[in-house]
UniProtKB/TrEMBL annotation:
Annotated organism of origin: Pichia membranifaciens NRRL Y-2026
UniProt EC number: 2.4.1.25, 3.2.1.33
A GO BP entry: glycogen catabolic process
Ranges for domain Eukaryotic glycogen debranching enzyme N-terminal: 45-137
Name used for this protein in its record: Glycogen debranching enzyme
Keywords per UniProt: Cytoplasm, Glycogen biosynthesis, Glycosidase, Glycosyltransferase, Hydrolase, Multifunctional enzyme, Transferase
Gene Ontology MF: a single term: 4-alpha-glucanotransferase activity
Amino acid sequence: MTKIVLLRIGDTGEPIVPNLSGGVLTFPACPPDLNGPVGEPLFVLRFYIVSGSKICNNGKIWTNVVSGAKEKFNRASFTPTEISTSIYRDVMVDISIYQPGAYSYYITYNDLSDDELEIDKKSCSYHFVVPPSLFINGQYLTFNSVTLQSVCSKWVGTDFEKDWIPLFDDIKNKGYNMIHFTPLQKRGESNSPYSIYDQLEFDGAIFPGGEADVSRMVKILEKDYGILSMTDIVFNHTANNSVWIRDHPDVGYNEETAPHLVAAMELDSLLLHFSENMRQHGYDTIIRDEAALARILDGIKIHVLGQLKLWQFYIVNTNEHILKLEDYWRNEVDKLPEKIDVPANVSSDLQKLASFTVEKCKVKDFNIMGHRYDNKLDIAKFSNLLSNLYGAESDFNSVIKENALKILDEINLPLYHTYDTDNNTICSQLYNRIKYLRLDDHGPKLGEVTIENPLIEPYFTRFVDANGKRWSLANNGWIWGGNPLVDFASNQLKSYLLREVIVWGDCVKLRYGSKPEDSPYLWQRMISYSKQSAKLFDGFRIDNCHSTPIHVGTAMLDAARSVNPNLYVVAELFTGSEEYDILYVQELGISSLIREAMQAPSVAELSRLCHKHGGRPIGSFRWLPLDCISYPAHPMEYEKRCLEDIQCKSEIPIPQLVTSLEPHALFMDCTHDNEMPAQKRTVEDTLPTAALVSFCSCANGTTMGFDEGYPELLNIVNEKRKYTYGANMGISKVKKLLSDIRHEIANQSVDDIEKNEMYVHLENEFITIHRLNAKTGRGYLLVARTKFYQDGDQNLTPIVLHGVKAKPQFSYAFVNKQDSTSEEKDDGFIHPLKTELVELEQLSCSFDYDSLSTTISVPGFFPQGSIAVVATETIGCNEELDDYVRTGAIEAAKNLTLVDINAIMYRCDAEERDATNGQSGVYSIPNYGNLVYAGIQGWISILRTVIERNDLAHPLADHLRQGKWALDYVTNRLRPYESKNNSIHEFRVWLESRFSRIKDAPNFLIPRFFALIVGVAYEALRFTALKHMTKSIQHSTVFIQSLSMVSVEMVGLMNTASIHPFKKMPSLAAGLPHFSYDFMRCWGRDVFISSRGLLLSTGRYDVARDHILCFAKTLKHGLIPNLLGSGKDPRYNARDAAWFFLQFVQDYIHLVPKGEDILQEKVKRRFPLDDTYIPYDDEKAFSVESTLEDIIYEILSRHAKGIKFREANAGTQIDSQMKDEGFNIDIYVDWENGLVFGGNEWNCGTWMDKMGESVRAGNKGYPGTPRNGAAIEINGLLKSAIRFVIELHQKNLFKYDSVVNQHGDKITFKQWDSLLMDNFEKCFYVPENEEEDGNYIINSKIVHRRGIYKDLFRSTKEYEDYQLRGNFPIAYNVAPELFTKSHALSAIIVTDQILRGPLGIRTLDPSDLEYRPYYHNSVDNDDFATAKGRNYHQGPEWVWLIGYFLRAFAKLHFQEIDRCNIDRCVPSAYLQQLLWKRMTEHKKHFWHSEWAGLTELTNKDGDICNDSSPTQAWSAACLLDIYLDAWSEYGM
């Protein structure tokens, strides 16, 4: 079965991974089954795209992945896969991957412009690397188990049996499993392995049979020695005496292919000539000091630079231009080309005029070097310009020539400056290079200048071809701090002229150009070379990789992988930039980057390198899906996913993620081209350095001679001696022990890189590394005492390992026995220094049974250059424990109800105290603060980021290490919630059993296991909750599923806030934590605005029914209470709650199977039918029964007759802020138009219900937004209710067909419906054109904005009628028939442009004089409008309104705009993008919300409002309503 890995990609196609910019997208290791079916993919890459992303709009994923195992890879060939469009389901696109390599993808899609037109877009290209799989004789070799030995063939010998076989025996005995060979091809005249004479011919002295002999050697190595083979591959250069470059000189940078190098060539020739003739010029050929060097430099200035006349390559030849200009002026001036207009500000400024002239008239770019006097002006254009400046009739000598000379001289001025600067640079570079070569102590001190040993290295190789033509080809080299992406031999740089190249005189730099057609022979030859090498070897080391053009490297490696797909590719990059390193790794598919321990200048830096390459810190957090991906909650989908090969990290079948990791390292203790320890530090440091490198979680290696204790770096060019080696030489014996440990640890983590953990500690010259397998708990501890230099006595503080047992393994010191009398042998062999490997007393490992800790002490004699290793075993930590904490949660949760899950997952502080009678609240973390929830969600809100960042320093992690208090809290807090009626006990037992097991683990592992247990519990609870919900939710997006969980978050059992007066029943909170308990929890309007989304869309029909019936019990005055008061002490100060109640009853009947049955459900009424107020315990209370059908009718009939009363118990005891007049309630219908009116200027009976509270500002008792009169949303809800009862009556489900009004007249529902239909637009619409005002009830003088719907009709303050607010979309959604579609569309567009914020809808037009967008309820000041938050609804942006807005937006665009629908059947991708664009911030907000919800409101433009309830029921619910519309209307 093919393994599936998952890559989440974002809104514009970018990978959603931590550390994207600092890492490489890397697949997990997955060795193919060698005995499996041929042609199966290695992986399936599953792109996971969050629904509604921009890229879903006509999107395609383009990948250059091959479509079959035998298909040839073409990096430039991309195949599209369509992205299905949906904002209702997240999208998954599967791409099969058949071969390892470097791949990329990009996305094409239709984006929306600022004016929301569709425009074609293409994303950036993103690279991902599929690693090769290495096998040794059929056994898989992980990258971290690679242990490599570098070997230079010319130091081995030529007799394969006598020289090579013994070497292989030695390398095997040291524990190496890969040999890196320097190039085995025939070498050039310098005898350097990297100066290859012929890339296609092997060294005949060693391999007389050529390729066949090399192949035989590679096979012997694997079969007999268990060793893989790697070769250096050299793409950048060839030997300067290679025959084939003489036949094809175009493969190099010469005068024809690179004319910009002509000046550099002439300079180089003159330098060589000067070098050969120094004596004739009077200079000593032996340079003894800097004074002599200074004299020679003076000679260079005279005899080289003086003769070169370098300025001629920079400037414009004035005389030549004047002559040509005169000729043109006299003979061709009447044929001037198109006129060149010179701006006035240019013509008056000579410097600007000169620049303008160059820009308009230059023949070539003046910044690019060429031949002498190549910087030229087009004479015709120059003449044209002069003609326009001075007139075509002007005299040439007196006018044109004089001004032309001025311009030409001005042009030359900056060119001379550039020449001067470059000339000085050349002198400086020559001086420094000669000084390094001849005088510096750290240089080679080359001695006397001769023909064979010139003053300075030649930059060019010179030869005469078969036709007698002379050629100069640029030699290769490198540049300090150069940009690796710019070819230093190209015309973009002057590196060869400025002598900036550290040149290799024995190598010619190869010129590939930008494509094969630029140098066909070279490309063909080097591709053949690459393929031949890949066929023979298991791996490549790319020599000089950073100087190899990326397009060349990719082409060569693509060719190599076509022969050997599992090619292990390494490179040593000297880019000086991690960004460039990553670029090379991505593009070339480099498996491991070579890093070197010997480069560390200090013990501290060596410790840092070990930490960088050592693996994850011990105790690291483990990744879990949590809530970043939608759950396959539907049973069939879950079963399907469980059958996939996805290597789950928990019980939720979600694939392992492609991650962004730092490039994998091949950590070398010493490379073959750097100095040995005896040169840079001490020979004794060989052992600690080797051990430290071996303990790192990466590939490792060394050069031949390091283990043996060679005294110095072997010169790759000049060294002619042969290797010496042996089992007892140097540290060879210990290297085998270290290699065995490496392989043991690496083989324990083949399938999971997270298992590799380490701890690195630096103390003076001691470095300790503890390597640990995170799953098994087994590991090794290394103590290494370095010796960078001779130091005094130092001791290592005893190491205390808590919760760990330790057993000594071995301990050695590496001792230098070399003395001044030792003589170097001259026998043709390379001999090591005299050293001794001394076995030391083992480390002391003392275990204390009381503290369960081990104290490790270094013995008295542990000199510099010593190491010791102990095996460790973590108490209570093994594979069984890891599996145990990850499993069983779903089984334990299977019987939980959603109310049970509410208790386990959520509960803010007030809710928790309600459940525990004030005894316990949320958990407080020292140095952090309180959790927002007492339940699992509270921990997850912190852990999500902690896990992602592996933040072991977080206060929570520190707290968990300090003690087990949090573990006990998580389980003990559930006890008060347990009862015979729920299954919380079973889940608590699961938690308790897991926590009990980890209590025995060491403290440093507690954070990881705690996070695992809590994370697995969270996933099980979320999964179980979603299983209880509708099929649409189960199949939906991660965002919808998260919104749906707000239903669980908000509905719970409360002691102080049941919806039933005498039974404990779950109640829906308006928001948390502000509206969480007692009488403030259940609000009539909030409940019924929220219930469609939170209860019906999720399938919680029983809870919905209970809320309908329990609120119906409390009907009084024809009103549903604003505050329920548990059904005992309701308050009736809301004019809109009854209408939202009726709307929800209608939704319930339409959406719930057999929902109409609820109409005949009976409820016992809290109050007598005559509205008399009585206490809830009065015998008359709850004595009258009514059916819900009667309740509905009573609401309508009471409104028809008019409602007028004073609130019961009016006064400060029920409202301390309201003025006395505000307690008077007056609601009536105007039968001229059928609209319902109500309220007065002293109360606020709609949802905009903020009462002024500030005595200081004088606004106490003054409502912020009274909205008396006919509110638009109430009348939309009224129309919806009338339509609903008419429909019910026609179906014989509602026995009433009329009401009696306040005048005693009978009014049928159909008559009332007609009145509303006839008058709604007339009363509420404000036409776009003033000329149409006569058709509506309009006071044109007050109109502030047109093309909108009034918020009110006939309010006390007439101007408030015309205020633009976000309430009309509510009316449109429930009663669209009231609206003229074109008017409604225009109004919704105005709302979109004026009122829509990032998260919510502005509650008032920003251009309104009363607009105050910042709500600060806690601030009391002198501002009447805002003190104590009176402006609650006067500008702040409320989130719930955007749900109604988007529903109306979607319906109107679908109905009225053709491109927003497909054949009038379903919404188009374009419409879905319009909607998703408007919900982008909601998704972000939800993801970052520790409350796992959407806030109540924001301040201006989405600014955080600290006084807002951070999670509000209707905010999430009204977004779910959008999806419910689509599911019910379009079946999506």
